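Sample entry (219 residues):
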Amino acid sequence: MGGDQHESGTRPSLRERKKLLTRQALIDTAEGMFAERGFDNVTVAEIADAVNVAAKTVFVYFPTKEDLVFHGEDEVLRTLVEHIRNRPAGHTPLDAVVEMLGQTMTASPLGAVTELERLHRTVGESAGLQARMRLMWERFELAVTAELAEDTGVPRYAPRPRIAAAQLVMIYRTMASPEAMTYIRTHPENRRNQAFDDWLAVARDMTGEGIADYARRER
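Predicted structure, serialized as tokens:
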């Protein structure tokens, strides 16, 4: 969770390090409990007790119980928007998103798959977490819409930024889907990077070329 250095290069204080350790302990403990018993069968009080903190302390770090599952959401969104914003000359937002996803898998192929599978197992049939995940994707779309609108000099309510954002986030969303994870897992470990790239290539091609003629029924 950020290591021992701030972005400025200065070492965090002892208090800050303790806060980081407590936050990570809450995440690790919650994930273990959720995996064993299911999200809806675990209380915040039980998580707090296992980490030896007060229940109210949990809410200092995580405003809602659901935030213990989606604890990395802000960082993922920041990375997504920054990749689009900082793309080099000649690159499209589509290029930026595909590059970011490729880098994620290349950095830790097994870790990325394992983390996504953990998330899907935790969400499971929980209506609350399913709703929270839909809100996450909506939040991503709105943030990308705002970035594209500013980048192209049009209002946020203009159609192109919103539609483009929905398609860009759709690529991210499908790459994190259970179907994509199953597809990757069906390949030997030494072929999983390639399986990920294959799925991503299809997503890029179908988005880049448009889907106007996809699955058109014959007369």
